[in-house]
Amino acid sequence: MSTDALDTSETAAETAATAPAARAQRRIQLQEAALPVVVVALLVAGTIADREQFLTRDNLLTVLTQASVTGVVAVGMTFVIATGGIDLSVGSVLAAAAVAGGLAGEQQSLPFLLGAIGFALLLGLVNGVAIAYGRIVPFIATLAMFAGARGLALWMSDKTPISLLQLDFVRELGRGRVAGIPYAALVFVAVTAGGWVLLNRTRYGRHVIAVGGNREAARMAGVRPQRIVCSVYVLSGLCVGIAAVLLSGRLGSASPVAGNLLELDAIAAVVIGGTSLAGGRATITGTFLGVITFGLLFNLLNLLDMPTELQQLSKGVIILAAAALQRRDR
Q1: What are phi and psi of 223, to 5 degrees?
Q2: pTM for the full model?
Q3: Which of 54, 89, 254, 325 has the greatest number of CB atoms lying within 10 Å of its CB?
């Protein structure tokens, strides 16, 4: 068979593999289009409930800053869930990465940055290898990392937060502003934009969707599913490392108990954004809007002095509604 014929065959196979995923992607549009309406509704409700504080510039920037850590992690989680996987370890990995960074650079910012992001990448790689090559179910592999990374963080820090008050650059990233806009919010927007380009404008992004939609068809199209699956957990680790830097800078310390329940917030934002838990269907724009939706909702509930249990109940109802919408769509 000639080279041209082989190329044509591979192209046709790849098209066949990605066509169902492309149709699924188009079905995201309803849920994604509904989220801006929800955001506007929350803004209106917040303005009516608290005219003096809710719609002020400072409060909205505070919402974006507080949502930045969850948002950065949620971008990486979107790629993981797009392949049909899950990552329950992001909160524990964030704590371990922050502590590792603190041990590497308690006096200087650059060693802290390299230590935190590098350690998160390493733990993400461990997850990816275990799942892609060790054939361990993602839920089990990341659940093991959930427990292991938290224990590692507590052991490395001797159960004591590591002060980062001397790291001016890290603290500036977590708390500082440029032209009145928090650096953390800018990092969140930049990571979101990068994730959108990677998912929607690159061959890698098409392969991620193809692997999540039909792994066998993707393999026949020349895609290497194991590499793709492994890579999305490494990408998740990168996002967690960035989030660890932002959170540590905001707190002024590397805490071994940081990131508690962060995985639930990130998964919730991804799900209500329209990414399918079954894989093969993902939207970075929806994830961004999901993060903003939760940020505005909890900010409003806090301003109204609503109890924490009511906030958690609200989150559960929203997640259940989004999952029901996905099931109806399938």
Answers
A1: -80, 145
A2: 0.88
A3: 254
